[in-house]
Amino acid sequence: MKQLIMRDIYLIRKNLLITFGIFAGLFVMGFIIALSAKCGNIAKYVSDTDSIYDILQVASYFAIIAGIVLATSLEYVPGIINKDYKNGWHQYMNSSGLRPEMVIGVRFLLIFGLFLVSIILSVGSLSLMQRVSGEALESIFHSGLGSHEGILILVYGAVVCLILDDYFILMEYIYKGRNSQKAEIIKALPIMIIIVIVMIVDGFLYANGKLEMVLEKLKGLTEHVALLYTVPILSGIMLTIICFFISVKLVKKEGRHV
User: Fold this and answer.
1) How is residue 221 annotated by DSSP?
2) Residue 4: CB partners within 8 Å, gap ≥ 6?
3) CA–CA–CA angle 27, 32, 33 (5° rounding)
4) Percentages helix, strand, coil for the chain, rounded to the nearest 5?
5) With contact defined as beta carbons under 8 Å apart, do 236 and 162 qualify?
6) I want to staple 135 with a disulfide (CB 3.0 to 4.6 A). Which of 25, 56, 110, 254 is the partner?
7) Low-confidence winner among 30-34, 42-46, 102-106, 230-234 (lowest mean pLDDT)
8) pTM value?
9) pLDDT tens sequence across 121-143
10) How many Cα atoms sit within 13 Å of 236 on the Cβ side?
11) Count of alpha carbons within 13 angstroms of residue 138, beta-carbon side
């Protein structure tokens, strides 16, 4: 299994390095802004306290954007499966004697590993940025969640990437690397549905003046912060396991080893 994991990581190494490079670049930019606002040129030439506060908040936004970019590294795993079908890797594995649970499980382990790494690095970078700036990120959506807001954005962003890429992996096993127009539409369907739902809900709330009311009710979630962290993560884990078993069943049904 170790060799299979290393093989997949090797295949996407360049994409991973680029993504991690963008993550590091955004974080460094925010870090420089924070230092400059605290004791550099910005602090020297800007005397308005509110302006300094806003600039320090922007530094934290850089950390959040960097963390979300890092979570997109999960999308490279479905591409491995697609290429494997096209270059005959699966035909080779038919004679390898490896169980389908092992080969398919490696892909889901890899995507879940990237998920954990993205959460740890993004939350760590945001916490470091806030420690350097001395300002907590507390009023992005005015939900009353205080300093949890920024971290929850990173967690939910990573979970969304995990769920979507679990689905994309499943679609690759269903369509066996075929890139027909129908397959591409079905693969993109969840994203389109999410965008449409968000637009409809946002438009309805804004048109009826209920957006502030919803935001006010969100403040009641401050009493259940632990659930706001555990529910999405556990949901992502459960859906990953479900997609894994469905993928294994599909491959076994076709009489393939992988």
Assistant:
1) G
2) 102, 103, 106
3) 95
4) 85, 0, 15
5) yes
6) 56
7) 42-46
8) 0.84
9) 999 999 998 888 877 766 665 55
10) 24
11) 8
Coil/strand/helix, residue 147:
coil
Residues in the chain: 258
Q: Quickly state the pLDDT bin for 183 (edges 50, 70, 90).
A: confident
Residues 6+ apart with CB under 8 A from 239: 162, 163, 166
CA–chain centroid gap for 83, Å, is 22
Q: Which residue has the higher pLDDT, 53 or 43?
A: 53
Helix (H, G, I), strand (E, B) or coil at 63: helix
Cβ proximity of 76 and 16 under 8 Å: yes
CA angle 35, 126, 77 (to 5 degrees): 130
Residue 94 clears pLDDT 60, i.e. is over it = no
Residue whose entry in the numeric block shows the structure tokens 């300093």: 147
The token pair at 219 is 């403040």
Q: CA of 108: how far to CAs of 127, 166, 232, 243, 248, in Å?
A: 28, 8, 18, 9, 11
Residue found under tokens 């790494």: 117
Pair of tokens at residue 141: 């959506």
Exposed/middle/buried for residue 202 (C-beta within 10 Å: 0-12, 13-18, 19+): exposed
